Hints:
Elements: H1 11-15, H2 27-34, E1 36-43, E2 51-56, E3 61-66, E4 71-75, H3 76-84, E5 86-94, E6 100-109, E7 111-116
Antiparallel strand pairs: 1-4, 1-7, 2-3, 5-6
Amino acid sequence: MSQLKHKQRSVEDISKLPIVGKKPKTEKEEKFLREVCEYEFINVEERGATHRFSYGNASNQHVFTFDHGKKYKLPRFIAEHVESRQTPVWDWRPDGTGAMNKQLTGQNPRFQMRQKFSF
Length: 119
C-alpha cells in the first residue's frame, strides 16, 4: 500500500491558506482569524485516535494530521474549521397523520481545539 508524502509547511505558510467557508467581513476580523495561537487537539468522537484532513482550495491546500492530546500552533481559522465539524442528531416524530418525520434535534461535536495560554 502506498502512502502519500506531504511536505511540511511553516506556520507562516499555513496562515496564508485561504479561509474556507464563511468569509471575514472586515480586515480586523481577517487579521484576528489569521492570528497564530497554540491549541491542544481533543478527538471527542474517538478518544486517542489521530485525525487527518486536507484544508484549502484546489491550488493551495495542506494536509493536517492531529494526534489526540498534542499541542499545535495554528491560525484561528483552522481551529474554528476543525471545531465546526459536527455530527447531526436526528429524531423521528409522528406528524399526526400516521407518518413519521425526521427532524434535526441537535449536533454532536467531533473535535475540540483548546486554546493554551502561556504566562
